[in-house]
Design brief:
Rossmann fold; binds uridine-5'-diphosphate-xylopyranose; binds adenosine-5'-diphosphate; 8-stranded mixed β-sheet; alpha/beta; 470 residues; elongated; 6-stranded parallel β-sheet; 2 domains; single chain
Length: 470
């Protein structure tokens, strides 16, 4: 009954599950929220002063609710048993093997969750909420697994409630979302979740749809957003050929209210755990449903992004007299965007890989990403094709990649700087000092159009940016 107290369990304490549950717990002090994960180290970090993910403002939200009505635990079984509503927020990486490899979502973690939920639910009714981004009609599979293994007297409803937060602004996005989307079949179940978000999100911003529309909207939103970045990046290549300036073009088109000003920043390429994965997923779905033209249309967004990353590296090599072999290049920023420590699919990984293939020596600095993470990302993409890099990938990385503890230190003695993440602190550097410490000509490749190029040119740098002449 409605009078019964709601208790929530979330399976998966990652970038999505952690912050989302912390916000629900903050806003709803009477709802007990337990976040569970099989990764003990991650749970320990959530219970410490050093959270496993960096998000501005998150520490405060967690501290307000933790121990009051927000708990982090590895006890999955008990938490499932005690909860009336269970969010599934586990990772759904791209499949790396078998049918659909490189495109389809790997749903083994989701399936395992559904089976655990069925196993550990011993009475009454539970609402299962898909929070992870999933291919359309996954709810069907989740429902069937739950129904086929449920104990007698136990019943389930399945809802889709995709998360739209962006990393780096997770707390803001959760506090004031553009909308909350809830898809489901049972009116009561949908209403129960509407009532949770309704504590702080205006009702008109809580959209309810059928299950399949909700699942598809998440993939579509990410595909549209990524498409805007690929579109402006495609235009940036044309700008470089024509002396148009991509930032001027972006602001000129962005004033058309039908286009809008946001998400038109040309860059070295989009990254993050979502865009590429979700588009490839969409492509796979289209192929599966016999729509090859639609699949090809969306796949081009990813291809344009790969082109943009390669184009950037080629430009560095070409500019630096067609060779970077044994030259030191400072890399400023390794995260896929500012204000996050997340490096999944970061453009920096691919730019660094290609520079290493050209035998450059890299000194990397990122304010939130450490050496182990950088090396493991590079090893991961290079291990697929070791022959390309001359065999022993880990050795190659150890010998040619170092990490500095400031942007200035990274640039010292370097032949060139590649700025790959738009961290605010890069704008405030003493560029006179940077210039003096570098080899000459001092090349600076601004992969984010972040810096004041005219000032840099006046200091003496040779500046190359995206989609404009400097
Ligand atoms: C367009 C541009 O809008 C305008 O800025 C430019 O100066 C000239 O080209 P126009 O072709 O007159 O204007 O009409 P527009 O409203 O853009 O529609 C173009 C076509 O797209 C129409 O066939 C319209 O039916 C279609 N359309 C538009 C859709 O199918 N869906 C939409 O959401 C919008
Ligand atoms: C994205 C969606 O924005 C979010 O709604 C969804 O829930 C998850 O995926 P996220 O990946 O965290 O969020 O970051 P986002 O801000 O969308 O940036 C994605 C990538 O695109 C970053 O590498 C960013 O640098 C790049 N980008 C973004 C650009 O290159 N130019 C832009 O104009 C915007
Ligand atoms: P996202 O960005 O979608 O939040 P993450 O990879 O950051 O993805 O987080 C997903 C989390 O889900 C990981 O911490 C992982 O350990 C956890 N996880 C995966 N499978 C299970 C499972 N069966 N039970 C509990 N936790 C799981």
């Amino acid at each position: 009954s409605a009078a019964e107290k709601l208790s929530i369990c979330c399976i998966g304490a990652g970038y999505v599950g952690g912050p989302t549950m912390a916000m629900i717990a903050k806003q709803c002090p009477d709802i007990r929220v337990t976040v569970v994960d099989i990764n003990q180290a991650r749970i320990d970090a959530w219970n410490s002063d050093k959270l496993p993910i960096y998000e501005p403002g998150l520490q405060e939200v967690v501290e307000e609710a933790r121990g009051r009505n927000l708990f982090f635990s590895t006890n999955v079984a008990d938490s499932i048993r005690d909860a009336k509503m269970i969010f599934i927020s586990v990772n759904t990486p791209t499949k790396t093997y078998g049918i659909g490899a490189g495109r389809a979502a790997n749903l083994e973690f989701v399936e395992r969750c559904a089976r655990m939920i069925a196993e550990h639910s011993d009475s009454g009714h539970k609402i299962i909420v898909e929070k992870s981004t999933l291919p359309v009609r996954t709810a069907e599979a989740v429902k069937r697994i739950l129904a086929s293994s449920a104990r007698p007297g136990v019943s389930f409803d399945v809802l889709s409630n995709p998360e739209f937060l962006a990393e780096g602004t997770a707390v803001e996005d959760l506090l004031a979302p553009d909308r909350v989307l809830i898809g489901g079949e049972s009116r009561d179940a949908v209403q129960t979740l509407v009532d949770v978000y309704g504590r702080w999100v205006p009702r008109e911003q809580i959209l309810t749809t059928n299950l399949w529309s909700s699942e598809l909207s998440k993939l579509t939103a990410n595909a549209f957003l990524a498409q805007r970045v690929s579109s402006i990046n495609a235009i940036s290549a044309l700008c470089e050929a024509t002396e148009a300036d991509v930032d001027e073009v972006a602001s000129a088109i962005g004033t058309d209210s039908r286009i809008g000003p946001k998400f038109l920043k040309a860059s070295v390429g989009f990254g993050g755990s979502c865009f590429q994965k979700d588009i490839l997923n969409l492509v796979y779905l289209c192929e599966h449903f016999g729509l090859p033209e639609v699949a090809a249309y969306w796949e081009q967004v990813v291809q344009m992004n790969d082109y943009q990353k390669q184009r950037f590296t080629r430009r560095i090599v070409k500019t630096m007299f067609n060779t970077v072999s044994n030259k030191r290049i400072a890399v400023w920023g390794f995260a896929f965007k500012k204000d996050t420590n997340d490096t999944r699919e970061s453009a920096a990984i691919y730019v660094c890989r290609d520079l290493l293939e050209e035998r450059a020596k890299l000194t990397i600095y990122d304010p939130k990403v450490g050496i182990e993470q950088i090396k493991s990302e590079l090893a991961y993409v290079m291990q697929n094709d070791p022959a390309r890099y001359g065999g022993d990938v880990e050795k190659l990385i150890d010998e040619n990649v170092t990490v500095a503890d400031s942007a200035l230190a990274a640039a010292e003695g370097a032949h060139g700087v590649a700025l790959l993440t738009e961290w605010d602190e890069f704008k405030q550097l003493d560029f006179q000092k940077v210039y003096q410490s570098m080899q000459k000509p001092a090349f600076l490749f601004d992969g984010r159009n972040l810096l004041h190029h005219r000032n840099l040119t006046e200091i003496g740098f040779e500046v190359h940016a995206i989609g404009k002449l400097c």
